[in-house]
Structure formats: C-alpha cells, structure tokens
Amino acid sequence: MLFQSINPNDLSVVAEHETMTDHQIQQVLELSEKAFKHWRRTRFTERAVLMNKVADLLREQKETHAGHITTEMGKVWQESMAEVEKSAQHCNYYAQNAEQFLREEFIQSEIKRSSVVFDPIGCVFAIMPWNFPYWQVFRYAAKALMAGNVTILKHAPNVCDCAKAIAGLFKEAGFPEGVFQTVIIDIPKVEAIVASDVIQGVTFTGSEMAGTSVGAFAGKYIKKSVLELGGSDALLVLEDADVSRAAQVAVQSRMLNAGQACNIAKRFIVEEKVADTFLTEIIQNIRQLKQGDPMKEETDIGPVARIDLAEKLMGQISDSVDQGARLVVGGNQDQCHIQPSLLVNVQPGVTAFDEELFGPVAAMTIVKSEQEAITMANHHRYGLDASIWTRDLDKAAHIARRLDVGGVFVNTHSRSDSRFPFGGVKKSGYGRELSVYGLKEFVNIKTLIIES
Question: Is 162 designated active site?
Fold first, then answer.
C-alpha cells in the first residue's frame, strides 16, 4: 500500500511512501525493547547533549524542515519557520529542565528515609496529526526521551516526509539506534502495536472520533494514555473590553495555520453592547488577509491540508446557513483554498457552534450579559482553552474559574508554551502535555521506603 504526500496548494504529488509489513513492524518493536534497556540507564546529562544537538540541527536546517511542512500540509512559510524554531526551543527546554523536574522528592515522615522517584516506563507509542507536523512530535518526544523512555511515532499519512525527516534528525544528532523510530502504517495496524508488551504508553493528538478508538485500545490492553482531541475554544468579549485589540487578536488566532488548530479561538461570544463595533472590526481584519501560495512570504492564509477537509468545511458552512446562521464575509472555495470567513447569528444547534470547524471560518454569537457569555462558552462538549477580553482583571480571574476548560487566557490568545501544562477536559481529552506535568505523564511514580 502507498501513502501519497500531496501539495495542497496545487494538488501535485510530492512523494509516495510504502507502508510497512507486519515483519517490519515487529522488527521496530524488538529494536525499541532492546534500545530501552540501554537508554534508561543513561544520565540526564548524556540525554541533554543529544537533545540540544537536535535543537541545533533544527536551527541549522530550518529552511529545509519548514519546506517539508509547507509542501506537505500547506502551512504558510513564516508559520512553518516559526514551528521549526518552536520545536528547537522545546528540545532545549527539556534538555535544561528534565533532571530537575524528575529529581527524587523526599517526604517527611517517621520513616528513616521516604521518597518518590520517577523512573522511565519503556516505549511510548505516539500517533500524531498533520496540522503541526513538527511541533506535535517534538512536544511529546522531547520529554519522553529525556525521561529515559524510547518512542515509536506513527505520523499522519499525508506528512510522511516530515516523519522521515524528524527521524533523520534524531539519528544525525547521535541518538542510539531504536530510541526514536517511525512507522509508516495504516490505521488497522494501530491496535496490534498498542497490544504489544513492548508498548507501555500511548499518546494521541487528533480528532475526537479517532481518539475514542485509541483510548479504547489503550484501555483494552491496560496502557497509560494521553489524549489531546478536539477544541472549539470560546473567545469572550465583554462590554468593557478593548474591542479593537480583541478583534485583531481574534482574527490572528482563528486564522492561524489556515484555522487548522485545536486551541485557537473558534467561537466569538460577544456582549451585545459592543457587538456591532466588534463585528465591524472583525470584518475589516479578515478582509486585510492575503490568501495564496503558502511559499510566498507575503501570504497570510494558505490552503487547508487536503481536498476532503476543504469539502467537509464547505459543507459545514452550508449547513450552518441552512440552520439560521448568516455568512457575512468569505465562503468561497478554490480546491484546497477556503476564503477566510465569518458566520454570525450562530447559536447552539447550528453546526458552526456545535461542531469543530477545522479551517479559516469564525463563528460569532451575541449575548446579553456576562453570565450568558459564561453559559454559552461552557455549552459545548469540548473544553480545551478559552480567552476573556475585559479591562477588569479581577472579574476576569473570577470568570476564568467558572469556565470548564484546560486553560484560560485573559486579553491574549490561547497558545501552547513549554513552561505551562496543556490539555483539556470533557471531550477534548485527558492528560497533559508540556511543563513538569506533561513530563510526569509517562514515568513510573514510585514510592521508596527505607528503614534501618
């Protein structure tokens, strides 16, 4: 079976990749098991040298890796370059901090010596998405490897060049054979890998539907798992907000990566006293965006990653209009290029409110009060992030505690940062990436009691 990498800008075939046989998959698993026996005994300082080398290589080869991203999934050039740099910074972060984060913790007790230690668990199987094909991989891999685990990556079929290039980076940096491996496989092979005794943890980022299956496999075979699934983040604009700034950042957030991110503002929930002003500003900001070839530096919005995704998005727009929403800007399609769009009068029961729209389409809902804004924000099966726009910071802090999400951002947009935990509640998944909390997801938190 062949996977094709197709450039979404012009639908040309970039490369073809042969999927792996059962025998090849078994060899990968056996090599991971062998590598772990050695890798778990290495010192943090040894691991850090290699991880910093990966960061150096990412920066030295930045344009090459950015080219893989833009060509395979259509991210505009500036954003691809930024993604490579962010991945490098993340490698440096865990190289610098992993030892401290996993240091033995001593517990005061009547026992001579009591502590908690953090040991690696083995091989982490990662199933990663195409929308941030470098960042998503390094987000989990840097911490997994610095903790002393090894890993096998199954990347999305449309970004196999990215997957192979990342594997090449770890090899070039000097990581021992088998510590980081990638498999080119189709979905039916996933369960067999999860079932293997070699695999001790599973991390998945992607759709709710696929995450349900992966979570079920992990539960069936008793494997620790982390799921980072969909998001339909609310952006609350209260009547005392800096409306102009809120509108500017709302558009920046919603149109990032052509709208293909889980943790960006998708539902604009606006108090009616400032709704007209906010709408005018949003339309103006959307119309200023330059759409076109993602390789050109002046382009703000490139294509969505696949033609089937573009067609699904257009269907969601059409359904929303049929259900009572009004399209006020955008709504046109040219193959994978979807014009940046805005729907208003979006209420619960409308597709643009109830579903995740994975593309450059924003949905605006007008509410009468702060309390209604909170209710509307929480009225969703997803709970990843949210943002609040108000000049009253005490009020913002109070509202933040009432939002059923994994992260709240006041007067700024949602973003992932190595220093802060990232993840959601409800159907957005469970577990955390990033920070000390993400690092401890795939370690054995072991009690150590010593008496004289």
Answer: no
